[in-house]
């Protein structure tokens, strides 16, 4: 008889435990949230976005809405939400990879903004890019509307991948440039104007920017400067070298 009572008590306890974990905790207990992958995104930004969700419990936590809300942070490229029963939510942040920077006018102010590998222009928390010589300054790209999170026209996105490939090399080629200006052609496509650092010379190049282009530019600069110190323009398009004098 005592053994039977003990068994009944154990069974009741097990049932209560299951009910507690299956219904009570997910429905009533505060959701526990864990963030992963955030380096530039601050805890304050993440907590503010979490407050917008108004998801106090695990059952009420809307993963789709959460991905959208956390993804609205400028430095965030993508978000993965994993709900772990009964009360844990893991938010994995993939931050944008900055490959270039640009200067835009917003509300009468000139602001330095980042461009990621997908051609998205955004205002990052990390302002070190302003002084990072490996991140080139890109100008001249036309935007219909300049705002945080806008994507550049598709024609120019390949340039970001080329810049990314050059930055992955062991040599910091962009340290020799103060600016890369994009010049759109009337008949489609674009060309580039390279501005060597501490030089009055502009270098015209085609859109196929790569390591060879930058090496060729430096050789052409040395040759032209030795021949014509007053040159202010060098054209390295079409496989040749020509120069102009002011």
Quick description:
Helices cover 30% and strands 29% of the residues. It has 246 residues and is an alpha/beta fold.
Write the layout of secondary structure elements.
Elements: H1 2-28, E1 32-36, H2 43-53, H3 63-71, E2 76-84, E3 88-95, E4 98-106, E5 109-116, E6 121-122, E7 138-139, H4 157-167, E8 177-184, E9 190-196, E10 202-206, H5 211-227, E11 231-235, E12 242-245
Parallel strand pairs: 1-3, 7-8, 10-11
Antiparallel strand pairs: 2-3, 4-5, 5-6, 8-9, 9-10, 11-12
Helix pairs in contact: 2-3
What does this structure look like?
With 246 residues, the chain is an alpha/beta fold. It is 30% helix and 29% strand. It contains five helices and twelve strands. It has helices at residues 2-28, 43-53, 63-71, 157-167, 211-227, and strands at residues 32-36, 76-84, 88-95, 98-106, 109-116, 121-122, 138-139, 177-184, 190-196, 202-206, 231-235, 242-245. The strands form three sheets. Strands 7-8-9-10-11-12 form a six-stranded mixed sheet, with helices on one face. A three-stranded mixed sheet has the order 1-3-2, covered by helices on one side. The protein has a three-stranded antiparallel sheet with strand order 4-5-6. A hairpin with a 5-residue loop joins strand 8 (177-184) and strand 9. Helix 2 (43-53) crosses helix 3 (63-71). The longest helix is centred in the N-terminal third of the chain and has 27 residues, at 2-28. The protein is elongated, with a radius of gyration of 28 Å. The termini are far apart. The relative contact order is 0.08. The model is unreliable at 15-20 and 22-27 (pLDDT under 50).
């Amino acid at each position: 008889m005592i053994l039977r009572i003990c068994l009944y008590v154990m069974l009741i306890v097990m049932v209560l435990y299951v009910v507690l974990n299956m219904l009570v905790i997910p429905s009533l207990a505060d959701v526990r949230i864990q963030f992963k992958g955030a380096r530039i995104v601050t805890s304050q930004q993440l907590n503010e976005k979490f407050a917008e969700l108004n998801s106090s419990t695990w059952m009420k936590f809307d993963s789709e809405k959460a991905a959208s809300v956390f993804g609205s942070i400028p430095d965030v490229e993508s978000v993965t939400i994993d709900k772990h029963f009964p009360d844990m939510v893991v938010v994995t942040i993939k931050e944008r990879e900055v490959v270039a920077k640009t200067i835009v006018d917003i509300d009468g102010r000139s602001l330095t903004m980042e461009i990621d590998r997908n051609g998205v222009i955004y205002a990052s928390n990390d302002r070190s890019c302003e002084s990072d010589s490996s991140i080139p300054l890109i100008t001249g790209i036309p935007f219909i509307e300049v705002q945080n999170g806008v994507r550049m026209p598709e024609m120019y996105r390949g340039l970001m991948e080329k810049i990314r490939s050059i930055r992955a090399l062991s040599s910091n080629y962009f340290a020799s440039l103060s600016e890369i200006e994009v010049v759109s052609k009337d008949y489609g496509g674009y060309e580039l104007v390279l501005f060597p650092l501490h030089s009055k010379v502009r270098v015209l190049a085609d859109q196929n920017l790569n390591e060879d282009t930058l090496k060729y530019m430096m050789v052409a600069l040395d040759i032209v400067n030795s021949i014509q110190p007053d040159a202010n323009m060098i054209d390295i398009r079409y496989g040749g070298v020509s120069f102009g004098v002011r």
